[in-house]
Amino acid sequence: MQIVVEHFRENVEPLLDGKAKAMVVLGSRVEAVRWKKAIDSYIRSQGYGLGTLVAFSGEVNDPESNDEPVTEGSTLLNPGLKGRDIRDAFAGADFHLLLVANKFQTGFDQPLLCGMYVDRRLAGIQAVQTLSRLNRAHPGKDTTYVLDFVNSSEEILAAFRTYYDTAELEGVTDPNLVLDLKGKLDASGHYDDFEVERVAAVEMNPRAKQGDLIAAIEPVADRLLKRYKAAQDRLRSARERNDDDGASDAQDEVNALVLFKNDMTAYQRAYSFLSQIFDYGSSSVEKRFLFYKRLVPLLEFGREREGVDLSKVVLTHHSLKDEGQRRLDVSGRDESKLKPMTEVGSGSVQEKEKALLAEIIERVNDLFGAGTTDGDQLSYVTTLRDKMLESDALVTQAANNTEAQFANSPTLKDELMNAIIEAFEAHASLSKQALDSQKVRDGLRDVLLGPAQLYEALRARAGGDRLPA
């Protein structure tokens, strides 16, 4: 209980301007009741202002913890519930930790949930559904924590791989990885020390205004977006000219910029985790964390605009403070450890896949706007692509024509329309918009031929050898 409470107070509670919440997942209803009494006792002994709730179905008869059977609504367990639904009560500011056994591991939608503490065996779809409770989006939510006292990393990875082909667990143990990433990013030449200092100075100045932050970060973001757009333009031009060397060079530049952005994200995650354990003793390390945190959201590669979208820039002041080193030591247990990261910036192939998925989502979102989730949009494009891959006519045309020629094929237009119609039952809303708008259909065609790589997939199905045009 002590580890859960202290970790929550130090790492989870400060998130989302102090509104973050956490869930404790336990092995049975009896364990949940016992944990509730024990954790409340510890919180009282420390004088912490934390509220807890325990959720379970039915009645628990456990003489060890209570003299009489108790229910979820019992004042012995949840005196602050006062007849309210436990979901509504937990959403309020009075409660921070929710203890559960089987209840609320699925079908529980709480965007403020940023931490999970697991003390029960999880496997298969139950593991995926339970940990996915942390996935609900909320403004400013970019960090979540899971402390698992029971399951190994291999078991959790196996559960996710059943449902996500590219499931990946990342463990970081070497503090030098942050310094290695710092050196790699500094050597990229995409920014200089002056620009880092400029942004950090605004972040740490309590009198700074929103306009100061925009003035500090916008020039860097604008420069990188222009470089990406120029590389994309060169790539399209080279492909239209069948200039393989030019296309390869342009693609390398695009990939390098995408990898640069991903490395900044990796730096943020590594620093957020490792700075809790190691004292880097260097303000330049934290200043880069602040700089990257501001820069990354503005780099919407694949979603070119006339200028930088500054709607995501909101000033939150920071201060640098040395609080010393801390160590949580759970002795006497043979704990499974996550496999450590051994090299920085090494996931280029998978990062390209992630970049393509992100580009698909961004471009389809431009076509359909709000009202559908990213998952629905990605599923829709995948459905259309799979249906069009079944077309022998498209396979033949892709094998015998350049990509530019193939893009103008009347057969491609017809097969796209057929795919939209066939997908109507599963994706009625999106298909209706596509059927009603030539602009949307043209946009879908461009997405399919671009990041969805339909042309390459059709040629692969044909054997990959281009026949004479």
From TrEMBL:
Database matches in Pfam families: T1R_D3-like
Residue ranges of every copy of the Restriction endonuclease type I HsdR second RecA-like helicase domain listed in the record: 94-149
Transmembrane segments annotated in the record for this chain: none
Gene3D superfamilies assigned to the protein according to its UniProt record, in alphabetical order: P-loop containing nucleotide triphosphate hydrolases
Domain of life of the source: Bacteria
Cross-referenced PANTHER family: HELICASE SUPERFAMILY 1 AND 2 DOMAIN-CONTAINING PROTEIN
Protein name per Swiss-Prot or TrEMBL: Type I site-specific restriction-modification system R (Restriction) subunit
Origin species: Sphingobium jiangsuense
Lineage, highest ranks first: Bacteria, Pseudomonadati, Pseudomonadota, Alphaproteobacteria, Sphingomonadales
